Queue: 3 jobs
Job 1
Amino acid sequence: MRRIPKFSLLHAFEAAARTESFSMASDELCITPSAVSHQIRELESYFGRKLFVRQNRRVELTSEGRRLLESLSRVFETIETACDEVRLAPQEQILAIYCAASFAVKWLGPRLPEFVKACPDITLRLTSGAEQIDLSRTKELDVVISYNEPPARKGVVSHALGQEKIVPMCAPLLLSPERTARQQMPELVLIESQLNRVKWSNWFALNGLALPTRPRPSFDRAAMSISAAADGMGVALESTRLAEREINRGDLVVVGVDEFEPILQETHFLSYRAVEKNLEKVRAFREWLLSQTDIAPATH
């Protein structure tokens, strides 16, 4: 048995706390105001502390009541979402995706309207973050797109989404056409991406240049580094896949495209549970995503 009070008491509390009125809560719950008051008192007795300060025509939450409302609001929103999903038409499906934040913002997000148009019966639910998700334990997610290769886990299939070209890029105005990129690179402000496993030291060593030792601005997301570079702060060392819109618009240019060697690396990975590989929503998304990255769909 879970150690929680009766749901009817929590329901009455949430309605009264949200509306700041026992009367309005009673209208919403289709019970009398005295019944709401009785349920609130029973809940306060359960906790052994007051949740409301009673006034003439309204009620005000105590600090404990506010804390309870904050948590319950999230719980009720989750319950409401779950109920909405059950009410969907039988042919509709929910695809829960967890994605590396910068990949979601800079590359996946702009393409998702194509997937929605191609698969109208699949409803997307996208969340993002830097955490490595274990799909063998996290059952509420269907697929994960991670930055860096995820640890091998029994029952979970992972695919690399192809090699990415990692290069220095900056706003065009920072470069002088009268000097070579090799001459200018040591003088430019270098922007650090804290979570990027490819470091400036890797790139400078590959291209036979001495790494400048002066301080460097840093950001914890590739999307922020790319934006800072486009705004003229300095040079970002990032994937052309993530910066493709800025490059196509001319907001960013690749520094020394004919002078320097790029770093090629498999950076993003798609994962899903092996037992669900043929589930329509997982299969459809996998095949669509791999087609977007020019990778042949997996057959095993």
Note: The chain has ten helices and 13 strands.
Job 2
Amino acid sequence: MMNRQWVLHQYPSGPATLDTWRLIETPIPELGPRQILVRVRWLSLDPYMRGRISPAQNYTASVKPGGVMHGGGVGEVIASNHPDWAVGDLVETMAMNWQEYAVVTPDLPGAARANRVPADVPPQASLSWLGMPGLTAYIGLTEIGRPKPGETVVVSAASGAVGQVAGQIAKLMGARVVAIAGSDDKLEHCRSLGMDVGINYRTTPNLNAAIATACPNGVDVFFDNTGGPIHDAVLANLAVRARVIICGRIAVVDKTAAEDIGLRASARLIVTRATIQGLVVFDWWHLREEAFKHLTAWHRAGRISFREDILEGFEHMPEAFLRMMAGGNLGKQLVRL
């Protein structure tokens, strides 16, 4: 049996393009002890993947040219050498990668571990609100941002996989939520989730002034999924003792380090005594079960809703990645195989 895989062809200089990857066919290796063979059903597209195709130092190793592209997915076990996994079981792992079949070692630690897909939710939920994006939003709000009732929370990329969950958790914590997104349709979705105010950063002539108007008492918590000019405009409007969660930098990830220069916020940070903390969700993997317990309960109670953007077909993986990076997706970007 042969396996189609997307491998990294070359590191992009600037934004990725369709020829950043190439499609190959390889034989499926034999299963070793305590391994399972998975037919992949769903693959996840997430902004962290841009760091995987850069030679620059990051919090984890990059994919080397010729290597299979990293990524999470959900699939069905079709052969098993592991006593705890049977044919037909559904499995989720961050180590599924861009391929049609995956040999998975379920007992690996941390994010590479294989997890059972809950029976009472759609399988792809394990890649979105009940997966890494949901955990990211939960940790950012409950462990770092900690909004108090009545405080103002600003979420950038608020209709994205992390942002739409973060905005809803902030509302559950009693906060007033200002959503920043790149289209009126995305902002309408944010409002349908209960977020209070929307700002279209693409059509707003003065983002700093728009944030000041939306947040007359300043920004108490900023969940930053973009970096760039949005980051600068929000930091200029922080309230005293604000908490800033630096989660993503999709707006500047294609720029060189010399170009990634924005507002010099040090004076404002002194005045506000604000706290800024970077969030890498893999540091918090030990809280995964706790987070999922709360997210599941909220979803069952109708307190958490979620929108997905699905492309059909494994051949569309590079297209889906570029779509996500350009902000063309409406909700969580997924590919169904």
Note: The mean pLDDT is 94.
Job 3
Amino acid sequence: MLTLRQIEVIRAIMITGTIAGAAKLLSVSAPGISRLMKHTERTLRLKLFERRHGRYIPTPEANDIFEQINGVYKKVDDLHYTLARIERGGEIELKLGSVPSICHVMVPRAIERLRRKHPDLRIDINILKIEEALDYLLLGKGEIAAMSYKLDHPGIDFIPLAMGELLCIVPDSHELVGRTSLSAREIVRHELIGIDPNDPYGRVMSEIFSRQGLAYDMRIKARFGTTVCSLVRAGLGIAIIDQFTVAHGSMQGITAIPIEEPTRFQTYVAIKNDKAPSLYAETFVTLLREEMNAVVSPRLRAPAKAVEKITSG
């Protein structure tokens, strides 16, 4: 049996006609090429080259072998081309969804890093309400979805992504600016803007008040956290928002203040459980998890050994 290395050496000698030329082509030493060639001929019990005037002339038997070797190389070249195309993401589109709170800041940062790894990859991003994510995945419209809430469905796996906290946001000119923290009881004394508590995302915000029996009376409701931020910036009230929406100073004109009560919540990646994720989906989730964990308090970060991969469930 010939090894790939022996095939490579035979081909290099036939192309260049010399041991030195083959060594240069393969970026190895000439003595190493010579030793391997002699070993190959002994193993095959077949003379492959005649040495004439310093050049290596292939025997008729070697010419027959060369035809087969070229066929092998064509297959290997095709394989290398395919692997390179996969690495760059050529002719491939990753379709992913995300709830607005994660999509506003975290997803673009993860996508930027993903494109650096796979520069030819095409990406289709859909902003989804939590209840829209099931159809998005089950109907095959996308491969994965970043979620701020977990739903129960036999066809969908929810893999923990990152743990986050809520913040109180106020206009930069508000009287509360300068406070190091606020209690839920203090927050409800002000004009409130928020998301309907019947919405799964809105329920995350409302729980800190319901646990203490406080009325969460919102004069203005909006569907998305980014809209809530804009309304606060306009001076129409204060609000509770998740830290990922306002990470990296993405919302100018507002000040974020920590909340004294525990407000942690878990985010997830949802994936249809009858299909293995692609390389690009796996990489995206890893990068997204890193971006999200980079902005949360160290006490909320899962130990590295406990962080689940997208394929676990």
Note: The two ends are 44 Å apart (CA to CA).
